[in-house]
Automatic annotation (TrEMBL):
Residue ranges of every copy of the Glycosyl hydrolase family 13 catalytic domain listed in the record: 16-423
SUPFAM superfamilies associated with the record: (Trans)glycosidases (SSF51445)
Similarity comment: Belongs to the glycosyl hydrolase 13 family.
Gene Ontology biological-process annotations: oligosaccharide catabolic process
Gene source species: Phytoactinopolyspora halotolerans
Segments forming a coiled coil: none
Pfam family, one: Alpha-amylase
GO molecular function, a single term: alpha-amylase activity
Name the record gives this protein: Glycoside hydrolase family 13 protein
Keywords, comma-separated and alphabetical: Glycoprotein, Hydrolase
Stored InterPro entries: GH, GH13_cat_dom, O16G_dom_2
UniProt keyword annotation of Zinc present: no
Length: 549
């Protein structure tokens, strides 16, 4: 299924596994490597090329595993290194690549380095691995500046020194349990080069880089003029002190040398929230990272004009540096697309605890999500599918407050519910204590009726979301047009229709307007997100793939 050549990633479909919520193999209520291994055949049959596994490292899970305590091991909740090696080997036997998350911006406060920093005291080599500063004001009682965490609240936390006195402050872009590493320190840089080699030597095919735009800081910068507390916002001011600084590119050139030393070369994917798109293109130049998530496309509303603008801009800007575009509708940080596209305001983002935002039309969202799947999967470049997206799962908006675990909930003063709603464990079967997720419940409660959207209920059912994805991915893999890096728009169908041709002989039409549209001349309907009307027209909020001469 996966090509052996080194540029397989240019048109690959990568499936994101949030391991804690994917499948529970040992019955403790949390997903694990055993559960993932048991579902590899399912993923293979889905038609993907690779799996990307969210952090499985030892962690107190204050931020869903993105607070890493040891970069060279597996959290016992999920398994061990032996199981990890077996997983990589079994995935490769099925033709599936394996990509891991790496979290270089910060560690957990349970990491041995940070523990040593607290014990060693000011001006020590141990503290130099992190960003410690003296406070301002009498007795250093005020934080060094007004910078804020993107999870809400100050980005500085004061510690107690080993002698019991109030001490220095450490910097954390995210949760207080995630102290930022100091990437001006050569020891930090060398450590992560070694971490890369550790996993590459195990056979891992690449890394998705968390907060790829945030590792380099200029701590001499003054207070910021506004609140930097939006999780999904790109920095809006020039020369930002801790986002998208030019120094990150030197780091990635070094990483690329490590990746290219392997046969076949290993892959890097950037999570970089940057604007304008020309800034993103800098991350995927020939000697840096291979590809980057297309957050502009993910955040675009259900609008033909805005989606087209995102598609054209992405392909133009990234193509200028020889990189493919990537397309994504969901991930573990954003609201599920069925829910988002079921709203009048369908712009991507996290859900906030406001009634007018929480309400949506599930039937409308489901119909649009099916059309969006065909549109996304037909575009030139790589595509990402978040677990459960292929089942049409909605965002779970009514999780009990006592069940919420995302740090956004606490740090926002219980005004933002955070991202738990897209992380509810998957339903594999219609019944059982956790709808087939495991034998003993699930770490986040599944809502009533969750099993009706399960793999069991959709498997082999004509017209189900699962079978739509399987058919689309089968065509994406087998049709020669999907190897072409180009597309040509067809503007004859109106401003609310996205239609384009890829050679040889493929056309996609997506109707985002208010009226059915007549299809262009074609030889065959390959796949449709909804049945065509009796007169052969394409319904509203539907997409179709056509074989054309």
């Amino acid at each position: 299924m996966t090509e052996s050549r080194s540029d397989w990633w240019r048109h690959a479909t990568i499936y994101q596994v949030y391991i804690r919520s994917f499948a529970d193999g040992n019955g403790d209520g949390e997903g694990d490597i055993g559960g993932l291994k048991s579902k590899l055949a399912y993923l293979h049959n889905l038609g993907i090329d690779a799996i990307w596994i969210n952090p499985w490292y030892p962690s107190p899970l204050n931020d869903g595993g993105y607070d890493v305590a040891d970069y060279r091991d597996i959290d016992p909740r999920f398994g061990d290194l032996t199981q990890a090696k077996e997983l990589v080997s079994e995935a490769h036997d099925l033709g599936l690549k394996v990509i891991l998350d790496i979290v270089p911006n910060h560690s957990s406060w349970q990491h041995e380095w940070f523990k040593a920093a607290l014990e060693a005291g000011p001006d020590s080599p141990e503290r130099a691995r992190y960003i410690f500063r003296d406070g301002k004001g009498p007795g250093g009682d005020l934080p060094p500046n007004n910078w804020r965490s993107v999870f809400g609240g100050p980005a500085w936390e004061r510690i107690t020194e080993p002698d019991g006195t109030p001490g220095q402050w450490y910097f954390h872009i995210f949760d207080v349990s995630q102290p930022d590493l100091d990437w001006s320190n050569p020891e930090v840089r060398d450590e992560f080069l070694d971490v890369l080699r550790f996993w590459f030597d195990m056979g891992v095919d690449g890394f998705r880089i968390d907060v790829a735009h945030g590792m380099v800081k200029d701590m001499t910068k003054p207070d910021l003029p506004y609140d930097e507390s939006n999780l999904l916002a790109s920095p809006k001011i020039a020369d930002h002190p801790f986002f998208d600084r030019d120094g990150v590119h030197e780091i990635y050139r070094g990483w690329r040398e490590v990746a290219d030393a392997y046969d076949p070369p290993r892959l890097f994917v950037a999570e970089a929230w940057v604007e304008p798109p020309e800034r993103l293109a800098r991350y995927v130049r020939d000697d840096e990272l291979h590809s980057a998530f297309n957050f502009d496309y993910l955040k675009s509303p259900w609008s033909a004009a805005e989606l087209r603008e995102s598609i054209e801009q992405s392909m133009s800007v990234l193509g200028a540096v020889g990189a493919p575009a990537t397309w994504v509708l969901e991930n573990h940080d954003v609201e599920r697309v069925v829910t988002r596209y079921g709203r009048l305001d369908s712009t991507g983002g996290t859900v906030r605890d406001r009634p007018e935002v929480r309400e949506y039309d599930q039937e409308l969202g489901y119909r649009r999500a099916r059309a969006a799947a065909l549109l996304m999967l037909s575009l030139p470049g790589g595509a990402y599918i978040y677990q459960g997206q292929e089942l049409g799962l909605p965002e779970v908006l009514d999780l009990p407050e006592e069940a919420l675990q995302d740090p956004v909930w606490e740090r926002s003063g219980h005004t933002e519910r955070g991202r738990d709603g897209c992380r509810v464990p998957l339903p594999w079967s219609a019944g059982g204590p956790s709808c087939g997720f495991g034998s003993n419940g699930s770490w986040l409660p599944q809502p009533d009726g969750w099993g009706e959207m399960s793999v069991e209920k959709q498997d082999g059912v004509d017209g189900s979301m699962l079978e739509l994805y399987r058919a689309a991915l089968r065509t994406r893999r087998d049709h020669p047009a999907f190897r072409s890096p180009t597309m040509v728009w067809d503007d004859s169908l109106g401003a609310d229709v996205l239609a384009f041709r890829r050679e040889p002989g493929f056309t996609c039409v997506a109707n985002l307007g208010a009226e059915p549209v007549a299809l262009p001349a074609h030889d065959e309907v390959i796949l449709a997100s909804a049945p065509l009307n009796h007169d052969g027209t394409l319904p509203v909020d539907a997409a179709v793939w056509l074989r054309t001469g």
